[in-house]
Amino acid sequence: MATNTATNPASGNLDANLTVPLLLQKGSQLTKISEKSQKKVVFRIEPDEGQILYPSRKHGLVPIESIKEIRTGPDAEYYCAQFGFSGDAIDRWITIVYVLNSTYRTLHILAPTQDVFHLWESTIRKLYTIRVGLMRSLDNTEIRRTLWERQYWKGADKGGDQALSLDEVKGLGVRLNISFPKGEIERLFKEADTAQKNCLNFQEFQHFVKLLKRRPELEGLYNHVCGAQPFDFAIFEKFMTNTQKSALTSAELRTLFDKYATASVIAGPVLASAAASLIVPPTAPVDSPPIQSTPASTTATPSTSAPLTTTLSGDAPSAVPEASLVAASPVPQAVQAMSLEDFTSFLMGQDNAATRPDSNDMTQPMSDYFISTSHNTYLVGNQLMGVSTIEGYIRALLCACRSVEMDIYDGPHGEPMVYHGKTLTSEVSVREICQAIAKYAFVNSPWPLLLSCEVHCGLVQQDMLVDIMTKAFGSALIKAPLEKHSKIVVLPSPEQLKGRIMVKTKNLYVAAELESIKAHKKAGEAAAAKAAHLEAEPPSSDSEESESEVAVVMEEIGELKSELKSRWHKMRGIPSPSTSSSADLKQPKAKVPMSLALASLLVYTVGVKCRGIDKSEQYAPEQIFSLSESKANKFIQGGVGIEDLIRHTQTHVVRIYPKGTRVNSTNYEPLQYWAAGCQLVALNIQTFDLGYKINQAMFMRNGRQGYVLKPLALRDPHFEKLRKHTKHFLDVTIVSAQQLPRPKHSSGKEITEKSVVDPYIEVALHIPAWSHSPFLPDNKGYDHIPPSDASDGSPTSARTISFSTGPVKNNGFNPMWQEELCLPFDCIGGMLELIFVEFNVKDEKRKDHEALASYIAPLSSLQQGFRHLPLHDAQLCQHLFSTLFVYINIRDVA
Q1: Around Cβ 856, how many Cβ atoms within 10 Å?
Q2: 333-366, pLDDT tens digit by residue?
Q3: Are the CB atoms for 609 and 625 separated by under 8 Å?
Q4: Three-class SS state of 463
Q5: What are the E-state strand segments in 676-717?
Q6: DSSP 373-394
Q7: 583, part of any domain
Q8: Structural domains counted in the chain
Q9: Which residue among 352, 367, 386 closes a domain?
């Protein structure tokens, strides 16, 4: 089949990587399949806009960057069979999973022939790969620039004549989210129209864009850093050490410098110009570079039209003609130096990323890690009437969740089913779930996966459940300790359990025995108390009887313990000690409706009931209990209770789950429970709220692997670090933003018929409520929201400190604030990992609406100095072209 490409003057460097067949750009007929219908539809690809388009009354648009997964072949079998297709249909089937308007959606299409199928599949995957690569870092600036130019050129060229008139350029301004001052766009158009034809060809359009994207704040920063000298390695090293707070060695910095610097003879600074006066943030180091100041309350103009004045710390001129070069003493030889373009590339690249990479130590016991955990994994809607499907498991596993949940009941057709009990949720087969888990378990993370099961089915289907899991998971399923014939003293590490799957449910045999022991223990305590009371009285037959009763009870407790140990050894295949007495064998077996085969799967993850967490209660290392958020809140707010909980989680795993009244599947904020040391803090990952964002930010720290090592303070058995309470300020200077996204319709299309946005920035710190006297200085300006718990019906949340800038009027393209925000916070044990900083870009005209874009990260991961923050949508998909330029500093309070 022919794969001719459409001629495009903006093809640039992407054509070597991307070939979009003309047939797919014009459109081809495919069968669109849904639960309600099957119909022929003309689909087409718009490569420059990055969209799949088809006629529809509701949506009809799939943004390439919103795609989560492309399924073909065996990966698409589930839906292919569900819709009644068989034979060679699987070889022509494509399922696209994507997110639109905060909702997961699936698009199923069937190609008429395998040739058409291969054409569509390869092209979509190619487009997807390029855009996903761009979303993972701010590097690849050349591809990013070319994509941007092609996208906006195509959107502006309404007539399709490969030229832009002045009216078309004015229309482009609306789409770029900027309202130009009177006469400004005409001036830029005239400057770019070098051929003086009253229109711009693509090369002239590129020049126009370069003028539009000029960054005077970076020009001012560059000139202040190097002054009249070449930007050589000495200057770069000083900038990195003093301003960027870099921990790299001099040799490492030299390698970084060589990566960006170009060799040239430099007689002075390049373009010693800036848009306005430059000021140093009050909290910055004395030699920190100044940054551009633009009043936020006035209409911001494109940077190209700003007056060119500079205020430097030395005797630099206060006014310089545009694009002029400042004369300096000649440099006698060529030196390796950074140009303004080099410096800009560095500041925007991954080597100057907003966050630092985390340690990936996976050799500690499993109890030493926070573990990404999904609640009600089978649901894709709310927990009262939601749909149960394998999609929930696939999404969770692709998000690197390492603990997923299954509520298992007897199925009507002889096989166990999963659904939410006592609700109107639908059912899904355990067999289908296990097949999906087997396929996706280790796609995004190699570390152990825990299946948290609530088993409500009878013995027959319990045995069938074990058979299904054994066949689906094979050797990955944990059935015995890694070290056979030995008692579990400490939990194994994620490294030791790499690639393995564990099952957790309540072991009813263990539960019954523990309850029996507890009852006998209480009886013994009561008898002992009675005996102590009678000691003061003269000896009698009654007192002798009481002493005899205590002895009998204690003997029974010992026998029960021996029986429990013997039975446990038997299930593990461990020989019983030769000292076992015949009395042990005479004890009646507990009548518990639990399959021994299922009990044998519980090795390192034995579910038990919480009997308390003080020193009087003992749990084996493998025993796990679950607490609702309400129960956990009582421990956390109980003063001594939180210390007991932290101590318990140093050697044992604890699971927290949302309260049952969250019928809309909302989430609590997990950092409260992380601060108590709890590992499995379960969330509804189908709900894109603040709890979801914080959870995703936590596990982005080590590359989204699902395990994060707990802070040392929570692992220290002596609690020394937990006694340390410190106070700090987070100083953030909001400098500028680049190409903010416009609001969108529910269909995914941009809202362009309304006015340009008036953006402002809200910065918030989410802090665990670990102090009854938080650090709240008198100098107001920030907003403080105290923590809340589930007792009053509101969501469990941490406390929040927030601060907002003023708005910049009519400019979402290159707004500049130069506004400093100062946020106080306190910290326990140096655990900055549990404080999260959130940047929200909002529109003053739509304050009650969802943020236009956001960025969230643990405070420990956020690097200081000048950084470009990549901005994300509500589902944490990164916007390809939107960034926020900030200066960050953390100050300690003496």
Answers
A1: 22
A2: 667 899 999 999 999 999 999 998 887 899 999 9
A3: yes
A4: helix
A5: 680-683, 707-709
A6: EESSTTBSS-TTTPPB-THHHH
A7: no
A8: 5
A9: 352
